[in-house]
Design goal:
Layout: H1 2-47, H2 51-60, E1 74-81, E2 84-87, E3 101-113, E4 124-134
Antiparallel strand pairs: 1-2, 1-3, 3-4
């Protein structure tokens, strides 16, 4: 009887271990993509806006070859509001009376492929993040 129970439980427990590992690896990939986006933003804050250099910083922030700066970083002028940053003409006056600032948006994108085919979920996911900061 114990051999039958063992024979039934081992495959089930193995599938559970693989599934939990898969979820953990997917969360880790999401953290890598978020960290890459933030690294690109930190580069822009420290060195100024240079789309190519920021894209390189995003790609170099992790050892994963599937993470890139996509879409490319952009620079725009805007005013901070309660709901985010609204686009404005450079040098224009914000509704609160201040001058419009220069902002950058750095995006990072990566993909994750599951360890096994679960049949009910896609085998591959695209993970995207976006970070925004004022440069001046």
């Amino acid at each position: 009887m114990a051999a039958i129970e063992f024979g039934v439980l081992v495959p089930l427990l193995s599938l559970m271990v693989v599934s939990v590992t898969d979820i953990g690896l997917a969360i880790y990939r999401k953290m890598q993509v978020e960290g890459s986006s933030q690294a690109g933003l930190e580069y822009a804050i420290a060195h100024g806006f240079d789309a190519n250099a920021i894209s390189t910083a995003v790609a170099a922030a992790t050892n994963s070859s599937v993470i890139s700066a996509s879409p490319v970083p952009i620079k725009f002028c805007g005013c901070a509001t309660n709901s985010g940053v609204s686009s404005m003409t450079c040098g224009g006056t914000c509704p609160g009376g201040g001058t419009a600032g220069t902002y950058t948006i750095v995006s990072a994108q990566g993909s994750y492929s599951t360890i096994i085919n679960y049949q009910i979920v896609p085998n591959s996911y695209v993970i995207s993040t976006q970070s925004t900061a004022r440069l001046q």
